[in-house]
């Protein structure tokens, strides 16, 4: 039954549950980065996290184009993307990303606090998967993501729909909608994913499944309008 599924899905090691809870709650930025540095070597070993956002983002653009990813680009690479740039606020996470050999460029950058280390209109696609959430990357990062995306380029963004992230999700969707109404981009997809990642507590679990739900958004940056001659 549902309770059994919840018990199995939340049968993560206590240390993993505690670490996930620590990086998601509103601790100060230096403390969160220190936690990620310590987690880096074992981060990819945490089971049961669907990578729906990477799959959707990878399908959107040709494989020879530039795609910056928040240092989770293995799914993109498997689907033929070979020009990947990564940014992360954790030096430890960057070292782990460098060891994969997947990235042409890796830079230290705290999203939402520092400007992206790239010129304007540089990338064909930008992905931020699993980082837009309460206590993580603020929704105020959106204009900076748009800045580095080429006109006509794509942005794949994800957030969680669990109870503790609903306030953030509402703020994010308000910001997404404001940019759409201003003509900065157009929405191509907003897809709910029921089994997004494992829940760390029963309270966060979606209807007792043991997982939390999430949503994948894909936007296309509006092209620069052509000026009429004459």
From TrEMBL:
Methyltransferase type domain boundaries: 70-156
Ranges that cross the membrane: none
SUPFAM superfamilies cross-referenced by the UniProt entry: S-adenosyl-L-methionine-dependent methyltransferases
GO molecular function, one term: S-adenosylmethionine-dependent methyltransferase activity
Lineage top rank: taxon: Eukaryota
InterPro entries hit by this protein: Methyltransf_11, SAM-dependent_MTases_sf
Protein name, as recorded: MET27 protein
Taxon lineage: Eukaryota, Metazoa, Chordata, Craniata, Vertebrata
